[in-house]
Design brief:
InterPro entries: Amidase_CS, Amidase_dom, AS_sf, FAAH2. It comes from Planobispora takensis. This is Amidase. It is a single chain. By secondary structure, the chain is of the alpha/beta class. It has one domain: Amidase signature (AS) domain (Amidase signature (AS) enzymes, Alpha-Beta Complex), CATH 3.90.1300.
């Protein structure tokens, strides 16, 4: 039999519908895979063994009775530790929250369950989701399955590593500054950052959500195949969860005249691009051109200023309380050192203070809207450098240009646009990836283009953790 853990969510759902395999067999295969490889990468923090097997048995009984089954019936999923899963702790990577058990699922987790998906585990993240390497005092560091010497990314680094190694066919994370797309780049998987308002923000354990996170952060899926992203995404958008930003917009927009134009961003505000990332961008552009897209180079408007305004909003409105406890009392020494080094860099990255950052955001959004009227898709790097060696983000000299390398990432967050991260080959033993950006609520255009890329460029995962990992 085909190794079930190596299959994607779409394939598994189809096999279950056709009676080729039971839900229990699928869940057990992924639990065994976790047992086999998680000790090498430390991506899954908690295995929901009993509840997932019970859910699989119930799903098999429902199917045997001929009852209605959802499109994700029996498909396992893993969920990042800052998303509510009923009966499991929403730790946010913080040791003090190890017992912060959620009474109910986050709205989109409930929706995925209603479609038949079965949570089998929780995944690792850095404290507060505020570091670009996955490590914390509660569970320790996640290892990149491609190279133990390099970061798996963050903050959804546990999810990316779990999906890359076949421990999960579907991961659920979030993205406030590239936290889906950057780990996807590091681990060689795909990820969808939806438009602002698509997926409900609310969660029982999360409590009040700071304005910056309401505006800049969204929840989304990770998977090894783009069609699995699409399948999951279509079952994350229907419940508002009392989120005031939620917008029940149709999942498919009006047709775009062919050939669809794509602008390739090769100049990220004057910041250089590593050869590996530049080559991945060229490969992706050529693949889209071969697929019938009209590809042309273009300079993204106000990219540097978008990054600065993003930083100002996140800095000013990213807190729940006026007074915060000292970070050293709740976080690991690694995070404390990281933040001590990064805070002055972060402060400088804010640039000239805006009179009204939301007003300036609207001006930048209008510039992008006009720019994308001509070419609705943008092909851009995620970070302009590949996965970094572990420990680099504790070096102040190395950290200095981090905000510049992430401009195309945070501009997408600032403007609430959808973007798909998709692998585009490998170099130096590490995966490379690009992102495809579209106008707000046009995830369908992003996903279509990402599937065209995936068809042309060989998918990179699942993989076994590399020796030394």
């Amino acid at each position: 039999m085909t190794r079930l853990w190596a299959l994607g969510a779409w394939d598994l759902a189809e096999m279950i519908r056709n009676g080729e395999v039971s839900c229990r067999e699928v869940v057990e295969a992924h639990l065994r895979r976790i047992d086999e490889v998680n000790s090498l990468v430390n991506a899954v923090t908690v295995t929901l063994r009993e509840s997932s097997l019970a859910a699989a048995d119930a799903a098999d009984r429902a199917r045997a009775r001929g009852g209605a089954t959802g499109p994700l019936h029996g498909v396992p999923m893993t969920v990042k530790e800052n998303v509510d899963v009923a009966g499991s702790a929403t730790t946010m990577g913080i040791a003090a929250l190890r017992e912060a058990t959620a009474a109910a699922d986050a709205p989109f987790v409930a929706e995925l369950r209603a479609a038949g998906a079965i949570p089998i585990g929780r995944t690792n993240m850095p404290e507060f989701g505020m570091r670009w390497h996955t490590d914390n005092a509660l569970y320790g560091a996640t290892v990149n399955p491609w190279s133990a010497a390099h970061t798996p990314g963050a903050s959804s680094g546990g999810e990316a590593a779990a999906v890359a190694t076949g421990m999960s066919p579907l991961g659920i994370g979030n993205d406030g500054a590239g936290s889906l797309r950057w780990p996807a780049q590091c681990c060689g998987v795909s990820a969808l950052k939806p438009s602002l308002g698509r997926v409900a923000q609310a969660g029982e354990r999360a409590g009040p959500v700071p304005f910056a996170f309401q505006l800049l952060a969204v929840h989304g899926p990770l998977a090894r195949r783009v069609r699995d992203l699409r399948l999951a995404f279509h079952h994350m958008c229907g419940r508002s969860g009392a989120d005031p930003w939620h917008a029940p917009v149709p999942l498919h927009g009006p047709p775009v005249p062919a050939p669809v134009r794509v602008r390739v961003v090769t100049d990220v505000g004057g910041t250089g691009m590593s050869p590996e990332v530049a080559d991945a961008l060229k490969r992706a552009a050529a693949a889209l051109a071969d697929a019938g897209y009209l590809v042309e180079e273009g300079e993204a408007p106000a990219l540097t200023r978008a990054s600065e305004v993003y930083t100002q909003i996140m800095s000013e409105y990213g807190r729940v309380h006026r007074d915060q406890p000292p970070v050293e009392t709740i976080a690991s020494p690694g995070f404390v050192r990281f933040w001590q080094l990064y805070e002055p860099i972060w402060t400088r990255a804010a640039g000239e203070r805006a009179f009204d950052p939301m007003m300036e955001r609207a001006s930048i959004a209008r510039l992008w809207s006009t720019w994308m009227d001509h070419a609705p898709l943008v092909l851009a790097p995620i970070r302009t450098r590949p996965a970094f060696p572990v420990g680099s983000d504790l070096d102040p000299g190395w950290l200095a240009d981090w905000p510049d390398t992430m401009r195309t990432v945070v501009a997408v967050n600032l403007l609430g646009l959808p973007a798909v991260a998709v692998p585009a080959g490998q170099a130096g033993g590490l995966p490379q990836a690009v992102q495809i950006i579209a106008p707000r609520f046009r995830e369908d255009l992003c996903l279509d283009a990402a599937e065209a890329l995936e068809t042309a460029l060989t998918p990179l995962t699942p993989i076994d953790p590399r020796p030394g990992s």
